[in-house]
Amino acid sequence: MPQLNPSPWFFIMLITWLTFSLLIQPKLLSFTSTNRPSSKTPTTHSTSPWNWPWT
User: Distances in Å between the alpha carbon of 23 and those of 19, 27, 31?
Assistant: First the structure.
């Protein structure tokens, strides 16, 4: 069963993981969010009970 041979797939996974960790991830983390979650005020919604007609 050749698909159980880990030699080519492990190398591909390792190179992909290293590329993501060392090159792509720092670039993505350097972006700042335009909408900060802390700048929004929390809103409270009033809920009312539902009156079911068959109860």
Answer: 5, 7, 14
DSSP state of 49: -
- Has residue 2 got a pLDDT over 70? no
pLDDT in tens, 23-43: 888 888 888 767 666 666 778
Q: Is 54 exposed, middle or buried (0-12, 13-18, 19+ CB in 10 A)?
A: exposed
pTM of the model: 0.45
The conformation of residue 11, written as its DSSP 8-state character, comes to: H
Q: Structure tokens of 9?
A: 């797939």
